[in-house]
User: What shape does this take?
Amino acid sequence: MPHLWWGTYPAEGLGTPVGKGEGLWRQDDDEAAAQLLELPAPSFLVAHPTQPLLYAVSESPASEVHAIDVSDPDAPKVVGSVKTGGTDACHLLLSPEGDELYVSHYGSGDLAVVPLFPTGLPAFDTPIQSHEHKGHGPNKDRQESSHAHSAAFAPDGKHVLVADLGTDELRRYRLGPGGVLEPDGVAATLPGGAGPRHMAVKGEMIYVACELDGMLRTLRWDPTAREAVLVEEQPITHVAPRSADEVAASHVLVTDTMLLVGVRGPDVIAIFDLSPEGWPRYRASLDAGHWPRYFAVIDERLHVGCERGHEVRSYSLAHVRRLPPEQETGAIAELPYRAAEVTSPACIVQR
Assistant: This one.
């Protein structure tokens, strides 16, 4: 039976010393979860497509990727680790075949390539590549240097794109044999101070959640120029900040007919309807607990990690689909949910 697994930050939150008891939690019931493994700040998780393995990245000054065997769900164990060579790793992209991991480092700004054996175990003790990037943006507090925040495959399947929060760019790398990457310039430059954080791809469209200016940007992939062309931008939510003085986008996800964006500060999931051509239209914002950092749709439920609320919430996706359009600008919609206690939840996968 598949299980839900949560990676967590230390109890005191992101930016505090790691290795303070945080780790991997298993959730089998919407109202109960338990920690089964200690790891330093496993803030992002992905699951191998065929093997009973999870990969967790430790977001720390000396970042590592861990392969975790969950064949016995009552006793998960680390079966391999790779020092990534960068600082504050915050995102993992796994190739569809499960033979490479691409590791984004917020702190050092580089993208590391970690090959995997067919068994899913790391093939080497260190990455085979580490791609650095130089640059900065106008926000002196957050954009003093490159900050690789996430990676995604371009719509053509031939490139890896990196959302660089520090330089307001989508960096472009050409995929080569064995998963190696060839630097291939910049696919898109966004407005100064945007702070691109996470991307979702559907068809030829790329949806970028920008953390620093609170905007959702839609780009269309041009396969001839190998560029992502900005075609639309709009505020991520109409809701004003509640728990902080900022509107900080966190994660973006595409379903069949909807686009969902997590927004910290207002503490909502913003819901956009997608036209058949892929254009997002804002519908409403759902109350999502204190500091919704990451979320996923699994088995027709929307699972949200409320990092500072120390809980995870589960909403019926059918209820989300039926949520009516916003009746008043800035209104916050509410839906019934089930909740479980998890300390500083950061990411969820199913395996």
Summary: The chain is about 0% helix and 50% strand. The first strand starts at residue 4 and ends at 8. The first helix runs from residue 317 to 321.
